[in-house]
Every structure is written in C-alpha cells, then in structure tokens.
Amino acid sequence: MYGFLIIVGIVLLLFIIWMVYRIQTLVSVVKGSDKKIASGSNKVNAFLFIVFMVVAGTWMIWYSIKEYNNYQLPIASEHGVITDQLFWITMAITGIVFLITHVLLFWFPYKYQFKEGRKADFYPDNNKLELIWTIVPAFVLAALVIGGWKAWSDITKPAPENSHVVELMGYQFAWEVRYPGLDNVLGENDYRLTNASNISGIDFTDKNSFDDFSSPVVVIPKGEPVLFRIRARDVLHSVFAPHMRLKMDAVPGMPTRFWFTPTKTTEEMRAELNDPEFVYEIACTEICGRGHNAMRKELRVVEPAEFKKWLSEQKPYIVNNPSLVADLPIELKELADITISEHK
Amino acid sequence: MATAHTATHNEASHDHHDHEHHENFITKYIFSQDHKMIGKQFLITGMFWAIIGGLLSLIFRLQLGFPDMDLEWLRPILRGWITPDGRLDPEFYLALVTMHGTIMVFFVLTAGLSGTFSNFLIPLQIGARDMASGFMNMLSYWFFFLSGLIMFISLFIETGPASGGWVVYPPLSALEQAMPGSGLGMTLWLIAMTFFIASSLLGGINYITTVINLRTKGMSFSKLPLTIWAFFLTAVIGLLSFPVLFSAALLLVFDRSFGTSFYLSDIYIGGEALPNTGGSPVLYQHLFWFLGHPEVYIVLLPALGITSEVIATNSRKPIFGYKAMIISMLGITILSFVVWAHHMFVSGLNPFLGSIFMFLTLIIAIPSAVKVFNYLTTLWRGNLIFTPGMLFSIGLVSFFISGGLTGIFLGNSAIDIQLHDTYFVVAHFHLVMGSASFFGLMAGVYHWFPKMFGRMMDARLGYVHFWLTFIGVYLVFFPMHYIGIAGFPRRYYSWTGFEFSNMYTDLNMFVSVAAIITFGAQLIFLFNFFYSMYKGRVASLNPWRSNTLEWTTPLHPGHGNWPGEIPAVYRWPYDYSKPGAKDDFIPQTVPLSATPESNLPHEQELVKLEKEIIADEEAVLVADESKES
Q1: Which of B220, B605, B225 shows the shortest CA–CA distance to B448?
Q2: What is the DSSP code string of A56-107?
Q3: Which of A249-263, B327-341, B586-600 has the lowest mean pLDDT?
Q4: Are residues B182 and B158 in contact, defined by beta-carbon separation less than 8 angstroms?
Q5: Taking Cα atoms as reference points, which of B599, B584, B314, B585 lies closest to residue A119?
Q6: Which residues pair with A195 in a beta bridge?
Q7: CB under 8 Å to B220, separation ≥6 — which residues?
Q8: Which candidate, A300, B126, B133, B557, has a CA 20 to 30 Å from the CA of A127?
C-alpha cells in the first residue's frame, strides 16, 4: 500500500516538474530570451561560482581543522616522522596553489561574465608568462623531489646488521609470523614443503630453522631496527602497518623487505592517546580475495628488555611439534633433539 | 606523393557525393560507415555503460555507507549474491568494484569519449569527407560492441564476473582456486578486452591517418583546433600502449590455460603446491601499467582538448598560449610512457628504479600546470557566456587542479608508502581522471549536440545538471581524502575489523548519499538528451558563433559532410574578439585578404601566400562548372 502511494507521489512530482519545465520553455520562447546570446541565467551561474567557492572553501577548511586528530594517525616509527613531514610540506605548497588557482577560477567567471557591447581582450600568447609558469613549478617540484628522494633512499637502504628479523608471510586470509630465534637467521623455506603442520614451508634440513618459532602477535622492541622479511605463498598481499607508515607488497616467488625503527611502545601510545584498548595493527592492502579486509595481525611494541624476555620464552616449531624433524638424517636429527631438550 | 593522394581523394569523394545515396535502415543506423553515425553509436553505447557502471558503484556504496542495511530488496536482481541474512556477498562486492573500474575506464571514458568525439569531430574539424577508412571505422565500433556484449554476459554467470580489481593482478586473476571470479568471469574479461584492444587500435590508426592525410586546403598542423591535436596525440598514445596490454593479457591467458609460468612462481594454494616456478607477478604489473598509465592520458587528453575549444569559444577569446598548449600535450604524451612504475613503488620494485620514476613522475606535473595556467589566462578578461558546455569545462579545470595536486603526493615515493592503495588514491584518480574526463565528455555533448542532431539541448536543465553534478562529485570524492590520510585501504568490504579504521561511518554514509544524488542528477541529463533529440529547439547553423569548420556544414550534414567543395582554411581557429573586426569571431574559412581591418602585421604578409590557395580553388570551381555544363 505504502509502495503504491510512494509511486503515485513520485509520478505526480515528475508530472509537476514536467509542467513547470514546459511552461518555462514556452515563456522563454514568447519573451524571445532564447534568441539572446546570454540570458539572465548567465548572471546566476556566474554568481553561483562565487557562492560555491565561499561555501565549499569554508566547509573544507573548517572540517580539515576540526577532524585533524581523527585522520592524522599518530606516528610510531622514525622514518614515519620524516614522511609525514614531507606530506605536510607538500600539503602546504599544494594547498596554496589549490587556493590561488581556485579563487581565480571562480572569480574570473563572475568578474568577466558576458556584458552586452563589451569585447574580450585579444590576448593570444605571452612567452614570458609561459616561461615563468614553466620554470617556477619546475623548481618547486625539484625541491619536493629532492626531499622525497633523500627520505626514500634512507628508508630503502639495506637494514642495519643488528636488525631484529621477523618474517611475515601472507596467505588467504591471514599472516603467518616467523621469528628466526636466538641465531637471528631464518631457516630456508621451500613452498613445496608446505602442509597443514608446516604453514611456512620451512626446510628443516637447514639447521638455522631449528630455533625458528611462530607467534600469534608480531612483537618488536622499541628503539631498535626491525627488519620485516615479507613473502606470500598464494596470491599478492601487502603488509600495511599504518602507525609505522609502513607498506610493502608480499609477492609469491619474490621475497621483499622493509626495515624500520619503532619509537613508541604500545603502552606509551595507550597513555598518549588515553585509550587503554589501543593496539598497533597490520592490515592487507593488496586485493587478495574474499577475506581481503580481514587479514588483521596485532603488532606489539615493547621495551627492549621485555622483548628479550619474551624471546627467551618462545618455543620453536620443532619443540611444539617434534614430528617435523622425525624424518631427518641422523646427524641433523641429533642436533634437533638437542635443541628440543634445551627448551624443555 | 601526399599531394597526389589528396587530389585523388577529393575527386573520388566528389564523384561519390554527386550521385544519390541509397541508404537503408541497416546501412544508415547499424552498419554505418559514416563517421558521424559511428560517433553517435559510440556515444549511446558509452552512455549505456556509464549507467551500468554507475549503478554498480551505487550498490557497493550502499554496502560501504550502510553496512547494516537489509539488502533483501535487491534479491530479485542479484539473486545468490545476497547472502541469506540480506547482506552483499563479499566476493560480489569485489566483483562490483572490479567491473565498475573496468567499465568506467575502458568502456565509458576511452570508447565513450575518444570513440565519440574523435570520430565525430576529426573529419568535421579538419575538413574531410569521412575517416580514411570508413570500413575500419565501422569495424572499430562493432569490435567494441562485441567486447561490451561479452563483458555484459560475464555479469550474469554463476561464478560472477572478474573480481580481482580492474588491474586484474595475477596470481589472483590467474588461479581459479583463489576466488570464483577468476574462473569463467576472468576468461570472459580477457576475451572482451582483446576485442576492445582491437577496436581501439582500428580506431586509433584511422584517427592518425585521417589527421595526417585528409586535412583540407590550408589546414596546416599549426591551424588545427586543439581538439584535433588532443585526439591525434591520444590515438598515438593508444596505438603505442594498447598492444602492450594485449601482450600482458595474452601471457595471462597462457598462464591460466596452458600451464606456462610467466607470472606464477612458488605457489601453494587450495592444499597443493603448483608446479609453476620462475615467473614474476611484478612482470605483469610492469606490462599492465605500461598501458595503464598512458591510459590515464588516453581518457584525459580528449577531455582537455574539448575543454580548450569550449572555453575559448565561450570566453570569446583566443585560447591563451596555443603553441604552449600543443607543446605541453606533446610533453604529456612522451612523458606518459616513462612514469608507469609510480604505481609500483611498494610492489617490491628495486628502490633505485623507484627514485627514477619519482623524478620522471613529478616532471609530468609541469606541462599539466602550464595547461591549467593557460586555461585561467584564457578566462581572464574574456566575455564569458555560461553555456552548459562552458560550465562543464570550468568544472573540469577545477577537478583537474584538485586531483592533479594530490598526484604530487602520490608521485613522491616516500609519501606514497603510506598513501598507496588507500582512499587517498581513490579520491585522486576519481577527480583527476574520472570526473575531469567525464566533465569533458559532458562539455562535448552539450557543445556539439546541435551538430549531432540539429537541435539544441535545453540550457536550463543543463545548468541544473551541471550544478548538481559538480557539487555532487566534490561531495563524493573530497571526503575520501580524509579517510585516505587516515589509512583506510581500498577494496575493503568493511572497515570495522580494524581499530584504526573503525571510524568515519558517518562520513561514509554521507558519501554514499551524495553518490546516489549525483547519480540521480544524471537522469536529468538523460531526459534532456533524448527529449531534445526529437523535440529540442531547432539549432541555428552556428549556435555558439564558433570559428571551427564543423559549423560551416549544413544543419544535417549528409555522408560526405559538405555539399560541393570542402571549404579551404585560411587562419587559425581562435580569432575571437580580434581588434578591428566587425564580429567577435572570424571563422577559419574567411581569408585574411577579406579582413584587412583586423589583420596583425605578420598576417598581412600571409595575404600574398593566400592568393595562391584562392587561385587554386577558383581553378577547381571553373573545372567543375565546365564538367557540369
């Protein structure tokens, strides 16, 4: 019943709009205003540009200031401070250009709207002007590029020797986190070894893998360099830690990396934001299928001492599941058994 | 050689025009070889696809803006894609995003824009009877139609259309096990795109050949309207880049169906390790973006060309810096081929390459900036008439600035780390490429509607359409910058799973409402378009008092465009408000010798040269008369 009434209402409304439109058209034909070069609407349109500029501009500036603390995520890494600084420098420069060009773009239509009897200026070119607005943007952009290039080179240079290594492997639809253990060297892996009990496809004939362990949460120490070794085992994924200003694709068959230094522990951030529930998160930003929006991993930043303690408490894969090394050649098996007994 | 060719062409087309045309419905409206009809076919098909693409986006905006909404009412259309509890299926959400992108980029903004206006305007504005090959031109449309048909069918198959994003990165798009959309839907996508590429190439070759060979007497490259320069350069870009997309697609077909490993390596999926090794998914990204980035300019340059023409005409002023505009378009054309990897800063690309591409990317901002400043200077001290076409052109410049400036953030690899694949990118390209090109398309339709159908569109409905769309587009895409800076990732079915993105639900709701209203405003346009086609006021021959050649044709130009001789051209197309001239415009067909009062000093020199052209013309006329008698 309501549906029917709504449809009748819509039909009536359309009919009224239609009538108004027809009457308007006929009136303009009678008045002959459709023969004029520019009708009264010209003034209205010119004026609307000014209205749009003032209203939209005010709204934009007000909202940008009001929401700053919401959209500006707190920074928790050393390079994040630099990239954010670049972001806001770029914002300042482009913001000024944005405002100036838009003021001109909306003010000119008002100022130079059609007037009977006036003639536009015949002003086809001016090489000096063209030169100025080629060279000035070139210099400004050069400055931005150089800043960006320096930051980019620093971020992407090889990780320091003493970095803590963490392997993040993306698969549909989660992250597997692997630590290299006390030797800080990850064991080899081969995707053909992957099975239900060996998600990462670790090659246990490599001694380095004996102390490798998995963790449900990515735990890293504050103030020390951390190297994420990133890979994927099925389709593309991308590691995104928004507070760390970190992003790197996970590519099957081509391991990638990203190193950084966290600057605030989870606890410190909780205190700073006055939010006891706060956690750092890792998300996936490369479309990977049905569960793309659900690849959440918690990232916990702790004090270095706490990190050491946590490291020593972790149990390697082979301790949790000795069958992983059951089929090894005898010499390796003995070594593995030593590792297992050390952790008991 | 060239002259010989032109001469034979003139003769042939002349004869062809003298005898009666026997056109039936099929040769006139369906398998037409008339560039004007083919242009209209592209336009109508493009409009159909724009509606489909827009509707798809409304469905996923409902999900993003109103995640708790009961979508049971969509079940009659979407069937199994609505889950039993009345929600949108997450995989169908990805399919919607993918098809929205594919349709808008290729079918609407490439075929609908270039296809329409390159076809319609090139022969009319350079003074040609038709395209160099009418048959190839017809094939170009029908390949496009076939491509669209296949893509349309893929929307209705059980496993759904392609769903790996419009970039269809492998391995996701290569492996059926990864998602259902990578099965038959992806196969159809690849077939459809193959036909689309063939269509683009047939069209592009024709545009280039026509512009180079079939210009009328006096129409040198330095007298071409900027629209033609834009269409010409667009066709060059397409001709060089679409084949690379084809190679990317072909290798993907091999990987999907013939067991090769171009893009696949070390994959364990669905409980088994695949035998493929040695391939690289990054190779696909390189090949894809080698088209993908120039593609941005394929959709943008025609829009900028149209805008140049519309702004100059309605400012009653010459376009400022005609040569600078051409040089910056050339610059954009060349640079567009060497910036592709800025889409791949965080793909695992060598960081050194990242630095190189950052430098090259920011260089391309310079010609774009020059264009904006030139548009502004064209408006300065003009005598502006706000036709709907003019309004849409000014809107385009606004989007071009807003979206272009955010490109400076994204082109900077250090800043891109955070912004990559967030809504900041979505906001950026929807403004600079999507909306700007769409506004170019609209400006073109409003401006050349009288030439297409011999009638005027209603201006007042045009104003309402413009203001609703202009404000609507900003309301939809501007807020996306904020959630992008906040790190909201693209292609997410829902953001509530993460604490950092579990906010701005109100903003997303606002965006969705704005999107629905903006889409609704397009219905005004559709009404105006189809109503005016039959009932609009009959247009005058040159309603905008414009200089270019198309306005010298009859109201309803037949196949061949001009009855009798093709007019010769004596001046550039931007002699508006020339000091000393009687009117505020002097069409290109008026000889300089006829306007001694307004000629500039260097033009007085050219008057002598002009005499040769005129003498030549007269000789032809005399010959014709003697033949007739």
Answers
A1: B225
A2: HHHHHHHHHHHTHHHHSPPP-BHHHHHHHHHHHHHHHHHHHHHHHHHHHHHH
A3: B586-600
A4: no
A5: B584
A6: A198
A7: none
A8: B126
Q: Is B277 within 8 Å of chain A by CB?
A: yes
Peptide bond into A173 cis (omega under 30): yes
- B485-500 burial: b if 16+ Cβ within 10 Å, else e: bbbbbbbbbbbebbeb
Q: Among A322-336, B282-296, B545-559, which stretch is predicted with the lowest mean pLDDT?
A: A322-336
Please check the confidence at residue B345 and state whether its pLDDT lies above 50. yes
CB contact under 8 A, A253 and B265: yes
- Report the alpha-carbon distance of residue A318 to residue A323 in Å, rounded: 7
Are the Cβ atoms of B482 and A63 closer than 8 angstroms? yes
Put simply, the answer to whether A83 touches B474 (Cβ < 8 Å) is no
- Interface check for A40 against chain B (CB to CB < 8 A): the answer is no
Rg, C-alpha atoms of chain A: 32
CATH of domain A164-342: 2.60.40.420
Write down the ipTM of this complex: 0.93
Helix, coil or strand: residue B466: helix
Interface test with B, best of A28, A86, A234 (most B CBs within 10 A): A234
Q: Which two tokens stand for residue B184?
A: 């038959």
Identity of the residue numbered B42: F
What CATH number has the domain spanning B2-535? 1.20.210.10
Rounded to a whole number, what is the distance in Å from the CA of A222 to chain B's nearest CA?
20
Domain residue ranges of chain A, discontinuous segments joined by +: 39-113+128-157, 164-342
Indicate if the pLDDT at residue B561 is higher than 50: yes
CA A327 to CA A313: how far, in whole Å? 27
Enter the DSSP assignment of A174: E
Q: Cβ contacts (< 8 Å) between B381 and chain A: which residues?
A: 112, 120-121, 123
- Which residue among B320, B381, B458 places its CB closest to the CB of A124? B320
Q: In angstroms, rounded to a whole number, what is the distance separating the alpha carbons of residues B147 and B196?
A: 6
Residue A34's pLDDT is what?
Answer: 63
Least CB–CB distance from B172: residue in A42, A109, A236 = A236
Say how far apart CA B168 and CA B160 lie, in whole Å.
14
d(CA A122, CA B529): 34
Which residues from A are below 8 Å from B372, CB to CB? Answer: 101
Whether chain A has a CB inside 8 Å of the CB on B266: the answer is: yes
Interface of B with A in 478-497 (CB under 8 A): 478, 482-483, 485-487, 489-495, 497
Residue of B313, B335, B363, B415 to mutate when probing chain A, most A C-beta within 10 A:
B415
Q: Which residues from A are below 8 Å from B413, CB to CB?
A: 148-149, 152
B150-168, pLDDT tens digit by residue?
999 999 999 999 999 999 9
CA distances from A24 to A15, A208, B203 (A): 14, 84, 42
C-beta of residue B463 within 8 angstroms of C-beta of residue A46? no
- Residues A298, A217: contact at Cβ < 8 Å? yes
Distances in Å between the Cα of B121 and the Cα atoms of A28, B204, B411, B447 are 31, 14, 34, 12
Nearest CA in chain B to A87: B415
**Tens-digit pLDDT profile for residues A18-52:** 888 778 777 877 777 666 777 778 999 999 999 99
Query: Is the CB of B370 inside 8 Å of chain A's CB atoms?
Result: yes
Which residues of chain B are in CATH 1.20.210.10 domains?
Answer: 2-535
User: CB contacts < 8 Å between A and B, how many?
Assistant: 339
Q: How many alpha carbons lie under 13 Å from residue B41 in its C-beta half-sphere?
A: 23
Question: At a CB cut-off of 8 Å and minimum separation 6, what does A330 contact?
Answer: none
Residue B537 forms contact with A (CB below 8 Å): yes
